[in-house]
What we know:
Elements: H1 8-21, H2 54-61, H3 79-96, E1 104-109, H4 112-131, E2 138-143, H5 149-157, E3 160-164, H6 175-188, E4 192-198, H7 210-219, E5 223-230, H8 237-240, E6 253-259, E7 271-276, H9 304-342, E8 347-348, E9 355-359, H10 365-370, E10 374-375, E11 383-387, H11 394-408
Helix pairs in contact: 1-2, 1-3, 2-9, 3-9, 4-5, 6-7
The structure holds pyridoxal-5'-phosphate (PLP).
Amino acid sequence: MKWQKRTPEEIKSKIFEALSKNVNYSSEIILGVPASYLDEKVFPQNKTFLKDAAFLSALVQNPNHIGCHTLGESESFFHGTQEIERELIEICGVDILKGEKDELDGYVASGGTEANIQAIWIYRNYFQSVYSAKTSEIAIICSQDSHYSMDKAANILGLQLFKVTTDEQTKTLQKNDLCRILDDSEAQGIRYYIVVANMLTTVFGSVDNPTIYTDELTKRKANFKLHIDGAYGGFYYPFSNKHTNLNFSNPFVSSVTLDAHKMAQAPYGTGIFLIRKGFIHFATTKQASYVEGEDCTLSGSRSGANALAVWMILSTYGQNGWFEKIFILQKRTDYLCEKLEELELEFFRDPNSNIVAIRSSSMAHEIAEKYHLVPDNHHEANWYKIVVMEHVTLDKLEPFLADLKHHFSKPMIL
Ligand SMILES: Cc1ncc(COP(=O)(O)O)c(C=O)c1O
């Protein structure tokens, strides 16, 4: 297992060692790249505090992780820190998502949006290249509760998008609506499907059962690829539900998005894209001839410091530490839900998620504003959500619950 708990000293020395293997713009003669350290007038490297600050040092040295580093050949200038990114991809793909070592490719994307678009881009090109599919014959299928990055992907890539309705109470995929979509789209000439299942939806924290998609599509002998959008839940759900099949142990799953800048509290710019080997080259841009190893990512240049930050976070906890972290968040969310039930308020929560969506009829607008709950729709809210993050402690939930109790026990004015 790659995912080890490391001491702060071990983490620091591994990061500094990696940085030392990267290009040195001061001591070497580097003439050909449009890159250097951060402007030294503004961010001088000789500050003593930087000697103990591995992440800040990485920011200042500014490695560019352009391209994908799980394929073999990459930009040699930054090979020291690319090695850490490779280790991070293995931790996420193998230790968290139950893939096989050396059987996955991946990279640290700008976020969940990019990672989702990257997956859909690859599959569109795969269908076009392997089956000579016309763009008009390829469609995306996801749920009505999916993130709007699906709409962006459909728009950018020129694909049709079909959204399966979910049950109002349980938020589960409606199989009869999926069948209706498949019947209608087949009649319209769709032959290839890019299916995206959610591992925690943005508003409800609901989880799609991928078998609903794969059983029906297999029964119809449809040609499809399955991507998991775990931007919200990727660093949470695999730990709260050990029996999930939203990972690479499920042979239908080809790729997964995780976002370290959500539940893993990493810097923004740390979406993680993972895909089984044999697919990422469908997004290779051959014209990227000046990039060593070519480029099969949507990003182009991207900060290597981001990959190091996620590796540092995961290495600080180790696998057991991460289980404990999620366990505590689960217990706090259980507590919140018990109190909401006592108040007889209406809410949705998947038992393995830390998102609680409260119906607007069970919420007072002023309380939602006071505690900065996020509505599903800023114009007309139907739901307000709470995300039980590290900073959402019982001490912070108590005054909110007391206000709710006070509000809903007010005598009715007739
Ligand atoms: C389920 C889901 N997918 C994708 C995204 C997009 O992530 P990002 O904002 O990092 O692009 C989000 C963001 O909230 C999300 O909740």
